[in-house]
Please model this.
Amino acid sequence: MSKSSELTGGPTPEPTFATTREVRDTCLCLFVQRTARALARRFDAALRPLDLTNGQFSLLMSLNRPQPPALGEVAELLAMDRTTLTANLKPLERRGLVAVERGRDDRRRRHLRLTAAGHALLGEAVPIWRREHAALEDLLSGGEAARLRAELVALS
Amino acid sequence: MSKSSELTGGPTPEPTFATTREVRDTCLCLFVQRTARALARRFDAALRPLDLTNGQFSLLMSLNRPQPPALGEVAELLAMDRTTLTANLKPLERRGLVAVERGRDDRRRRHLRLTAAGHALLGEAVPIWRREHAALEDLLSGGEAARLRAELVALS
DNA sequence: GTGCATTATATTGATATCAACGTATTTGCA
DNA sequence: TGCAAATACGTTGATATCAATATAATGCAC
Model:
């Protein structure tokens, strides 16, 4: 059936150019990474006047809630490694946008609280996000955005 | 109409929790970054026996073609900054998987060539990619993968 | 063929990402 | 109670990402 033995488990053959085209044209991981880079650049550029990256914006936004969440909860919400979140917090702490405080009940936990400055900066970022996101949705036809979100969540 | 003045351009109000929910539930950039992290972890784990990351796999694969492409072409194909690609090449060059050679016609160009070792390693990676990617497509219903790819490209 | 804009790439500095490993605290069980 | 497993988090080292800036080669106008 197949001219290739790539599936037989024998001595691995070297991939043909046809295999490369197949991977390049179908690999969902590659497609998502590519779009992730493009969107990151786009939102980074839009938020540059506030000296915020897209990731910092999403992180600050996830902290804007009645009760300061623990680090682990936020990491899970962002589908991010805990240690990555620890690293990402450092520049925000330095700038006084986020404060970290030990849990009173459970002293292992570290709760992340948005400071007044962080809250205010987030307020400036929201209109930028609205503008940029509206432009983004214009690239998709009606209803596609919702479907895209559902598909992305299915892969997460 | 709107109880919020976030769109009026006046003194920026601080974002409400409702705004946070809106961003969290709709931001395509956030959704894509989240899925990008999850898929990267997944393919990184699958390729770990070969000591390859998902990005290194995609990069090696993009070099598997008749004529060695120039750095800039590859960067555009991967929607990646040129300087990022320069950095990503270093570990692959160290391991002897990729060779960089100056263009003969245009000596500014640097052509990226897969070595025999790189080609062989890529051969070992293909079955792993096939297995992992098949598992991934199972998470989506029929035809969704193609639609997802098209939507991701529209945003790139 | 000179000179200048353009093109292709490298370097530096900052943040982002995760695995491997280590520490402190809590929980549950004997 | 005492102690081991589980939980929450940090640190280190490696790669990934991009903006800003610099260098070198090409090409074009004149």
Observations:
- Residues 53, 55-56, 80-81, 83-84, 87-88, 90-91, 106-109 of chain A lie near DNA strand C (CB under 10 Å from a C1').
